[in-house]
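Progress report, Aim 2. The chain analyzed during this reporting quarter is listed below.
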Amino acid sequence: MKKIIVFCNLLLISFFVNAQVAEKISAAMNVFNNDDQLKFAISSLYIVDAGTGKVIYDQNGNIGMAPASTEKVITAATAFELLGKDFSYETKFGIVATPEGKSLYIEPSGDPSLGSWRWNNTKESVFLTNLKTALYNKGITNLKSVIINSERWDAETIPDGWIWQDVGNYYGAGALPINWRENQYDLILKSGNNIGDSVTVVKTNPTLYDYEIISKATAAGKGTGDNSFAYLPSMGNIDGVLLGTIPVGQSGFVVSGAMNNPMNQFVKTIVNFLKDSIKIEKEDYQVVQKSAQNVEWIYATQSPGLSALIYWFLQKSINLYGEALVKTLALQRNNLASTDDGLDILIDFWKARGIDPEALHLYDGSGLSPQNRTTTKAQVTVLQYAKKQPWFKEYYEAFPVYNNTKMKSGTINRVKGFCGYQKSKEGKEYVFSFLVNNYNGSQLGLTKKMFKVLDNLK
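Predicted structure tokens for the chain:
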């Protein structure tokens, strides 16, 4: 009887605490919704009690919203469940005999971390040294060419819905069979001392092969920050172009772009690194659509485990990782890396767990496409499901901390979102998703107002 009484008391306490939180959130949202920044906007907030699943607050929870990078929490959870937290990518290197002679043969995996600076074992210098050692140990001093087998990849590198202004910048790098240095480079820029002066490219890091960036950017006022955009070649051009502005008086201003051809950059980097000891006669690589027979495998790279990849995927919101993961879902299931197939697998998985497919109208795995639509209720359902899984610890640790809350942010033009987990001072845990589309004015100002609403969960 005493246990029953205690249990009933706990239920009553929980009920009253949730009721108070719901009342505070409702009052805060009334203020938020009437703010001038929301005059032409739509906002959605969905909150549940993490312990019971009871809905604490629901405003437009079933309305499809552009999620921006908050979509990454869905991709990450799906990857944990379908690939496993210990999954890793393997890229294999071997020697094949061709009519012209021996060639370096590469079996790619779509590894987004190859050449990344985020881990010691993935760094460019480590990889190149290991490959050179493997070739040396086999007595290789001359190769005819480099062959890459892409039979398990479709031709798409950029997902549908990505806009032209994005795809030339580092966050707009698509996923390929071979990804190199996260498919990005840095531009080191110099600007004049007067507003309107030209901006020149000092150098790139790394050196880009067969590709140049032409700067048409200009200098703007001090403190204006980076308002430049890199564009890929178009209209028959072979070079990219930098437009926009950076502040005046800069001598080493750094902006990052997306490589125009990461696989070419990868091969040319290998050729250049090996040239003192191993000659590769044809610098242009060959892409084939069929696995070679009788390959003598000499070396294989292993990516960090999925938990480590997803940590950076969520912490730094690396779009490339999301696109690689979606393609990997399809590669593992259908033996063909395809964004569309990967998204079908993702949506089917959550459909089986109660999320209507119409609540997940997705074009990519990262949230960069402004055409993506998801509901805050669907996002909370994913977050709540994750709490019950053996990989939740790794998933939760990957979430950034904003405003003393474990949550993933999302930002594209006129879209701002946060979703994640919050524990209150009473010990109650809440799961939430908060999306705003088509707001006006300052993003920073809106963010502070969203934080003020979410503070009521603390």
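The first strand starts at residue 42 and ends at 49. The chain is about 30% helix and 25% strand. These observations will guide the mutagenesis work planned for the next reporting period.
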